[in-house]
């Protein structure tokens, strides 16, 4: 053939394992037919014969012989004198097949052909890549850190595919260096132009669920079912599990002897605290279990409003709420109820005052910090140790001492 560069182009791809023979032939024919349309206005009367094994091809133009001066459509008709230059014995009405040389298309057209061919192959690869990772959404995937940027980590897998791990999809404690292997879940695939962007997540509940499937054989085998997963990435998670086999203890199987089974999952998630809970359809019992490690005295459920009043002894309140309010928030998400903590017992002194009553003297965000750990009355705070309050809240010691001074004055007057 006249243009070696073009033939080399399609020889580059004939051994590429990512594209099959039939698809390659279809792409090549499409590229050449587009070139013929630009050159001749139509490709209707052309046959294209491709031989991918040899990296070769032929183009034939088919026309009918008409008398000189009677050619109306140059694409489908050829004059008798022009036909006899190809073969001297042609007669009017016969079919003529003439080979079109690549050089006839022009140098500019040949360069465009090569570029179009490469573009079509890449487009095919992108389509395949999109479909491949679309099927992997929701599955665990491992890739290597290629580049760390402020808002995103760029990963590359064994096949050289680029995967992005955005900052908001990273666990707060995550710290990556180039060359590190990173495990996450394929959360989505987006098309950016013609190029697919593969998005990984380490904060998804599905990632934790898949880690359980990977690490706990009984879950993988279907003997234990994960009913629901809720988490605050890097801080705390709750996983409700169930088994249809009464002989299996789902919580014990997931945690393992002395936490041996769950330890690897906790470590993968940056020491995220994971509570594994026995699922039950009894809503009161499920809420009680969800609020672990706190011991609940009683629960009053309003099904219409999907709210539950949880009655707790004073010493159990902070356990139920947890640091930063994480425990009660996750318990609510897991159970599907909005949970209101109601204190009972010795704290209910008649002269106690709600903390919100001091909003003129204490900033709202400070009141909210105390409420997160279950302290929303004056006496409930005054009974606490200052060092404990510093540890359990995001407040400075100076702020806590000032709050205690204000509250103490209320009872001293």
Describe this structure in words.
By secondary structure, the protein is an alpha/beta fold. Helix content is 38%, strand content 25%. It has 4 domains: 4-126, N Utilization Substance Protein A, Chain:P, domain 4, CATH 3.30.1480; 136-201, OB fold (Dihydrolipoamide Acetyltransferase, E2P); 204-279, GMP Synthetase, Chain A, domain 3, CATH 3.30.300; 355-412. It has 15 helices and 15 strands. Strands 5-6-7-9-8 form a 5-stranded mixed β-barrel. Strands 1, 2, 3 and 4 form a 4-stranded mixed beta sheet that branches. β6 and β7 (162-166) form a beta hairpin. α1 runs parallel beside α4 (107-134) and α9 (283-290) runs antiparallel to α11. Residues 1-7 have low confidence and may be disordered.
